[in-house]
Amino acid sequence: MSGLSIGQVAERTGLSVHTLRFYEREGLLAQPVRRGTAGHRVYNEGDVDWLGVCIRLRASGMPLTDIRRYTELVRAGQGNEAERLEVLRGHQERVLAQMHELNECLKLITHKVAIYEGRLGLRDNVPDCAP
Amino acid sequence: MSGLSIGQVAERTGLSVHTLRFYEREGLLAQPVRRGTAGHRVYNEGDVDWLGVCIRLRASGMPLTDIRRYTELVRAGQGNEAERLEVLRGHQERVLAQMHELNECLKLITHKVAIYEGRLGLRDNVPDCAP
DNA sequence: GTAGAAGCTAGAGCCGACTCTAGGTCAAAC
DNA sequence: GTTTGACCTAGAGTCGGCTCTAGCTTCTAC
User: Fold this and answer.
1) Smallest CA–C1' distance to D20, residue
2) Per-residue pLDDT tens digits for A75-124
3) Which nucleotide is nearest to B39 (CA to C1')?
4) What are the E-state strand segments in B1-131?
5) Which contacts (CB < 8 Å, 24+ apart) does range B92-95 have?
6) C-beta atoms surrounding B29 within 10 Å
7) B82 touches chain A (CB under 8 A)
């Protein structure tokens, strides 16, 4: 079963059809997309799932080259688990670092927000001390 | 006291001298940088502090245009606290959303890492079920 | 049979955020 | 007195990640 057009996949994933074709050119798909009549792409559920993974990885700041590398390892099949692990662990560390950075930023913003709320009388007892 | 060359500020902030000049052109500095002999920039501690804020905001994904907008409000002086608050709250929400997204990604990665560790015999009792 | 929607390819264009180059000034060290 | 190093400006170049265009095919509905 299944057999989705690029338009349907765009709708499901939230990516544009342009981006879907672009991602394919960039080698982000685990398998080459099948083609139907007139050369139209035919996606299956597995493709959509894989795209979901790619979207998550992108959203967390993994560059396309790294996603491609990981995809290639998956495509190559069993035997390279150590390398896959290396890629994932590398990204995991960057994500953790990024979360830490975001936390610091959030502290700063929350601090400033409290100050402005104080100045605007939206809060009580907030000392006024910063720009 | 204070009076730092662009090179010293670069060293302190971790930004390149190119980027410091670029940020200035883009209007990210709360005050115009003073100039010393031969037109060389002379930064003070306040400039460095402000740059620190900008760096945090950038690191958390705030676009330069938004940082410029906020900088302009600060530069304009008191009376626009409501607008500053709006900018900060908007970014605060985006940061929170991003942290949520990173968390989801981290779950995914951690799950996959566990699987590969299992396959590689680095862990016990991990079911093998995903690519 | 023709109009419209959806798809195709190859390649150009765009945007944000830097990053670098060319050509010049100036002060201090040798 | 010249070389070295840090700075200056204006403007060009780069890179990642899309996004769009042109020109074509193919299917479906009227």
Assistant:
1) A18
2) 998 889 999 999 999 999 999 999 999 999 999 999 999 998 888 876 55
3) D8
4) 34-35, 41-42
5) B92/A106, B92/A109, B92/A110, B92/A113, B94/B61, B94/B62, B95/A102, B95/A105, B95/A106, B95/A109, B95/B60, B95/B61
6) 21
7) yes
Kindly determine whether residue B88 and residue A56, on different chains, have CB atoms separated by under 8 Å.
no
Specify the amino acid at residue B119.
R
Closest residue in B to A106 (Cα–Cα)? B92
Classify residue A35 by burial, with Cβ atoms within 10 Å: 0-12, 13-18, 19+: exposed
CA distance B38 to chain A (A): 31
Footprint of strand D on the protein (CB under 7 A): A 16, 18-19, 21-22, 37-38, 58, 63-65; B 5-8, 10, 17, 21, 38-41
- The first and second tokens of residue B36, run together, are 């010393």
Q: Pick from A55, A19, A48: which is nearest to A33 by CA? A: A48
Q: Alpha-carbon distance A88 to A53, whole Å?
A: 12
Nearest-10 Cα torsion for A89, A95, A99, A105: 140
Identify whether the C-beta of residue A106 lies closer than 8 Å to the C-beta of residue A88: no
Residue B73, amino acid: L
What's the pTM? 0.88
